[in-house]
Amino acid sequence: MKTFITTWLFACSALMMLSGCATAEERAARAVEQALKVKTALTQRRYKIDINRMYPMKGNSKSVSYGYSVEVRNDTLISYLPYFGRAYNVPYGGGKGFNFSERIGSYHETQQSNGARVIDIELKNDEDIYQYTIKVFDNGNSSIDVQSRQRDPISYSGEMVFGK
Length: 164
Fold this sequence. Notes:
The chain has one helix at 2-44; strands spanning 46-56, 62-63, 69-73, 76-81, 98-103, 106-111, 117-124, 129-136, 141-148, 154-161. 16% of the residues are buried. A hairpin with a 4-residue loop joins strand 8 and strand 9 (141-148). It has one helix and ten strands; from the N terminus they run H-E-E-E-E-E-E-E-E-E-E. The protein is α+β, with helices and mostly antiparallel strands.
């Protein structure tokens, strides 16, 4: 009986070790696939980043409910972002804030040594001039820094999403 239990425990531990190796290989394959999706989306300039956290210039970071995002579609930036901070000279009622769809004025992408890609986007609308700096990692995690002339800077973090 004792040898049966020992053999059974040995077999179970060997099976768990083998399944652990398979999951490590699967994770590596998924990471490569995700990096390829990110690279393709950035190359085609068709990507969307869902926001999950915001970092105002003053105060604590805040969780963001589902639905806020930044999307690039070729030569257009669609921004739907919450804002907490000081606004200097904005239209009565607050104006559009960071909720708009506008043509991109300039778009520059650079590759960093750690594998991240940094995209600098400049644009303007009838209310303000904006600079979006988007940093995207191979796994799709992203950070977005937004500066405008009429508001304090603010940062966001999120994740790149892909259509089915």
